[in-house]
Amino acid sequence: MASLITVLTAVLIITGTLYWCSKKVKSGELTCGMNLWDITRSEFDKLINKRKFSALNSWVNTPYLFPFYAGKFNELETCIFGICKDRYSPPTLGVLITSINLPFPNFIVRPKSFTQEVRDMLGMQDRYATIPASLTDKYDVKSEDYRRFASNLTPEIVNMLLNNEDVSVEYLDGALLVTTTLTTEEIISEEKYYESTVQLAHSFALSLGVDIAISKVADRA
């Protein structure tokens, strides 16, 4: 009898937890399993903390941002959310990792626009001798200190960017924002790409110099 009560109790706890997760976040078990919980726009704005990420601002219009999920994933404070230029544009997934310290100055690395591609074709490309041409051929690179940015740029980071051409990476005042565009097929089941998108952002963070082992020690201290 005691065993039956124990089993029933365990079933109730598991069922209750899954039900709570499904109510807590729109994506239910998926983001709950990642330890990410839905947060409000005001809470998201506090994470941004007045940082002017270029991906979240535009001289034409303000991108449409939608459901935000945040928490500690792989020992890093992480937030995932969607971005659209307007309510009818294909979404881009953004991953914000806060409270990190990289050896890099603030920088932006993003795919080139059509206008920039035309400039390249006309021989008007901006080049920085210290940054690999393979990177500037495909990406628009901006930094507050190009020399220091290039000195910390490893072949691993360059290869990660070249192998993920639709990804933008932006570091600003202790926070890293990685955005990636979804294909038409991926948009249909967007939520199932949350974890892989977060993992990709964390891979960039690690290659850029984030030490999760140090974070773990700090958390236990």
In short:
42% of the residues lie in helices and 23% in strands.
The rounded distance between the terminal residues' Cα atoms is 44 Å
Number of strands: 8
Q: Strands of the biggest beta sheet: in what spatial order?
A: 1-2-3-4-8-7-5-6
How much of the sequence lies in strands comes to: 15-25%
Shape: globular
Q: Approximately how much helix is present in the residues?
A: 40-55%
As residue ranges, the low-confidence spans are: 214-221
Total helical elements: 10
Q: Output mean pLDDT.
A: 77
Topology order in helix (H) and strand (E) letters? HHEHEEEEHHEHHEEHHH
Report the biggest beta sheet as strand number plus sense, adding barrel if it closes: 8 strands, antiparallel
The assigned structural class equals alpha+beta
Cα-atom radius of gyration = 20 Å
Describe the model.
The protein is of the alpha+beta class and 221 residues long. It has 10 helices and 8 strands. An 8-stranded antiparallel beta sheet has the order 1-2-3-4-8-7-5-6. The C terminus is likely disordered.
Topology overview:
Blueprint: H1 2-24, H2 29-33, E1 37-39, H3 41-48, E2 64-73, E3 76-84, E4 92-97, E5 107-111, H4 114-121, H5 133-138, E6 139-143, H6 146-151, H7 155-162, E7 167-172, E8 175-181, H8 184-188, H9 194-208, H10 212-220
Antiparallel strand pairs: 1-2, 2-3, 3-4, 4-8, 5-6, 5-7, 7-8
